[in-house]
Amino acid sequence: MSIETLQQARSDAVAARARFFDTLGEAQQRLKPGNLAGEAWSGVKSKGAEAAGNAVEAVKERPGTVALVLGGLALFLARKPIGRAAGGLVSRRRRKGNEDEA
């Protein structure tokens, strides 16, 4: 091996080491918790916007189906108050019927 070859190998090694440390610095910067959180939040926002857009398109395509689903959901969520109201009506009718018989 000649001196020139050794010097070229050393300069190649120094250049490779410099590239490695540059890449390592970039990776460390990208892996900082603040940067990761920012990237995750950006991804969530874009996916949320995409999902909202898809939902709007689905509502435009099938408004009747969406209305039925939302109506069913509203009835499900209001089942206890509806049940109490229906139970109150039934018990009032029974009391009224018992008063008429007496």
Secondary structure blueprint with pairings:
Blueprint: H1 3-30, H2 33-61, H3 63-77, H4 79-101
Helix pairs in contact: 2-3
Assembly type: single chain
Mean pLDDT: 89
What is the β-strand count? 0
* Structure class: mainly alpha
Strand content: under 5%
Largest sheet: none
The poorly predicted ranges are none
Helix content: over 70%
What shape does the CA trace take? rod-shaped
Descriptive account of the structure:
With 102 residues, this protein is mainly alpha-helical. It has a domain of 40 residues. The protein is 93% helix and 0% strand. Helix 2 packs across helix 3. The longest helix is centred in the middle third of the chain and has 29 residues. The chain is rod-shaped, with a radius of gyration of 36 Å.
Summarize the structure.
By secondary structure, the protein is mainly alpha-helical. The protein is built from 4 helices and no strands.
From the structure above, extract its key features:
0% strand; 102 residues
